[in-house]
Design goal:
heterodimer, A: GMP Synthetase, Chain A, domain 3, 2 domains, 21% strand, elongated, B: mainly alpha, Ferritin, 11 helices, globular
Chain lengths: 174, 267
C-alpha cells in the first residue's frame, strides 16, 4: 500500500547478493555485476538486469532465481527488465567476486585485454598461445598457456599451468 | 508511417523495409548459428567442439535480439521464435554463404572467417546507428564477434600455413566459398533506405575493411586469394532476397521440426 511497508532497497540488494550465479555458484549475481538497478514502482519491485553473453543459457535461470529469491523474502510483485545498453562487461565483476573466483580455481579477468577484432599485430603472434599473462589460480605461477579460447561456459577460456601441470579456467575479458 | 515510434529512427523508414533488413541481419546469425551447432559432438578435438558450441550460442543469442526487434518493429504481435520457426525458405533473408554445408573442418573455418570479417565490419558500423535499439544490440554483439574473428583468423593461419594436407584443404575451401562473398556487399533498395535513415551502413561501404582483413590473414596463412571470380547471388537473386540454395530447406526441416510437428509448443 504505502512505501513504509516496502523492504528497504539496501536490504533488497543484500538479498540479491546472496543469489548464486547458476553456472559459477561461488559468485553471486551482484558479484557478476549484472544487476544494474532495483527500484519500487508502487507495489512492484523492478529489477533491471543486463545479460552477459547474448546466448548464455543461464540467462533464463538467473531471472527465475531472482524472482524466486524475492518471492521467498515476501516480495509479491516482481518485474524483471532487461537492459542491453551499455552492454555487460567483465570489468563489472566486483573485487570480492574476483577473489572468490581465484579461490575457486578460476583465474579472474584481466581488464582491458578484450580483443577488439583488429587483427594487426595479433595474426603474427601464433603458436596457439596468447600474449596475455594469466597467473595459475592454484600455484600462482605465470608460466601458463592457453589451450582454447572456449571453456565450460561462454564466459571462460581453457588454460593450463606448465609448473603445477593443472588445467584451469580463465574468466575471459569482454 | 505510424508516428508512435518517433523516439527511434526506424520511424524514419518504412516499417516493412526495416523488418526486411532486421531479418537479414538476424537470419545470418540464426542460420550460421545452426550450421555451427551441427558440429556439437562431432568436432575433431574437444576444445574445438566446445568453441564451436559456444560460438553457435552467441550467434543464436544475437539472432534472438535481432528477430525480437524485427517483431517489435513489425507490431503484429509475433515473437522472435515465431519468425524463426514459422517461415519457409523463401521468407529467409540470410546470405547464401552461411547456409553452405559444413563440409570438412577447412570449409567450416573458411566460411566462418569470411563471415566474421564481414560481421565485425557491419556491427562496428551499426554501433553508430541512428536507432538506439540497433546500436545497443550491435554494441553487445560486436564484443562477442571480436572473439569469433580472432579465433577463425588464428585457425585459418595455423591450418593454411600448416601441413601440405591442411594447406591444400584450406585453399580448396577458399576457392569453393569465395564466390559467395560478393553478396555481402551488394546494395539494394532496402539497404539504400536503411542507409538514408542513418540506421545501417550501405553494404558496399564495408568492403574496403573486409578486403584488408582478408588480405592480411590470407597472406599470413600462405593462401592465395581467388581474385575476381564469378559471384553467386549478386544480381538481386540471392539469399538477401529469398532466393536460396537447396541446402536451406534441409536446415529448416531439422530446425523447425518441433514447431511444425507440435504447433505452439513452449518450454
Amino acid at each position: 500500500m504505502q512505501s513504509a511497508t516496502h523492504p528497504d532497497l539496501a536490504e533488497v540488494w543484500r538479498w540479491l547478493s546472496e543469489v548464486p550465479d547458476p553456472e559459477i555458484p561461488v559468485i553471486s549475481l551482484t558479484d557478476l555485476g549484472i544487476v544494474r538497478d532495483v527500484a519500487w514502482e508502487g507495489e512492484t519491485l523492478v529489477v533491471t538486469v543486463t545479460p552477459t553473453y547474448s546466448g548464455c543459457p543461464a540467462t533464463t535461470i538467473i531471472n527465475l532465481d531472482i524472482e524466486t529469491a524475492l518471492h521467498d523474502r515476501g516480495v509479491e510483485k516482481v518485474r524483471l527488465e532487461r537492459r542491453l545498453s551499455p552492454p555487460w562487461t567483465s570489468d563489472w565483476l566486483t573485487v570480492e567476486g574476483r577473489e572468490k573466483l581465484r579461490a575457486y580455481g578460476i583465474a579472474p579477468p584481466i581488464d582491458g585485454t578484450a580483443p577488439d577484432g583488429r587483427l594487426a599485430g595479433r595474426i603474427s603472434r601464433l603458436a596457439g598461445t596468447s600474449n596475455l599473462v594469466i597467473a595459475c589460480p592454484r600455484c600462482g605461477s605465470t608460466h601458463t598457456e592457453r589451450l582454447s579460447q572456449a571453456g565450460s561456459t561462454p564466459c571462460k577460456a581453457s588454460w593450463r599451468c606448465k609448473d603445477c601441470l593443472e588445467p584451469f579456467d580463465y574468466f575471459k575479458c569482454i | 508511417m505510424a508516428g508512435s515510434v518517433e523516439a527511434n529512427a526506424v520511424g524514419a523508414v518504412d516499417r516493412a523495409v526495416c523488418v526486411e533488413w532486421l531479418q537479414r541481419v538476424g537470419d545470418n546469425a540464426l542460420i550460421l548459428g545452426h550450421r555451427v551447432s551441427e558440429w556439437c559432438g562431432h568436432a575433431p578435438a574437444l576444445e574445438e567442439d566446445i568453441a564451436l558450441a559456444n560460438q553457435a550460442l552467441d550467434l543464436i543469442g544475437q539472432c534472438q535480439l535481432w528477430l525480437g526487434l524485427a517483431a517489435e518493429v513489425e507490431g503484429k504481435g509475433r515473437t522472435a521464435d515465431q519468425i524463426a520457426y514459422l517461415r519457409d525458405a523463401g521468407a529467409f533473408r540470410n546470405l547464401l554463404l552461411v547456409e553452405r554445408p559444413n563440409g570438412d573442418f577447412g570449409q567450416t573455418l573458411i566460411r566462418q572467417f569470411l563471415f566474421d570479417a564481414f560481421h565485425i565490419a557491419l556491427l562496428r558500423a551499426l554501433t553508430e546507428s541512428s536507432d538506439p535499439r540497433v546500436a545497443g544490440i550491435a554494441a553487445k554483439a560486436v564484443k562477442e564477434v571480436a572473439y569469433h574473428l580472432e579465433r577463425s583468423a588464428d585457425l585459418v593461419v595455423r591450418l593454411g600455413d600448416g601441413t601440405a594436407e591442411s594447406h591444400d584443404r584450406m585453399q580448396k575451401a577458399l576457392d569453393l566459398l569465395f564466390p559467395y562473398t560478393g553478396e555481402m556487399f551488394t546494395d539494394d533498395a532496402t539497404d539504400r533506405a536503411m542507409a538514408e535513415a542513418g540506421i545501417a551502413p550501405l553494404p558496399s561501404r564495408l568492403k574496403p575493411e573486409w578486403d584488408r582483413t582478408v588480405a592480411d590473414v590470407l597472406e599470413e596463412a600462405t593462401l592465395t586469394q581467388p581474385g575476381q571470380v564469378w559471384q553467386h547471388g549478386v544480381k538481386g537473386q540471392g539469399g538477401k532476397t529469398g532466393v536460396h540454395s537447396e541446402y536451406l530447406g534441409f536446415i529448416l526441416a531439422e530446425m523447425q521440426f518441433l514447431q511444425r510437428a507440435y504447433p505452439g509448443a513452449t518450454w
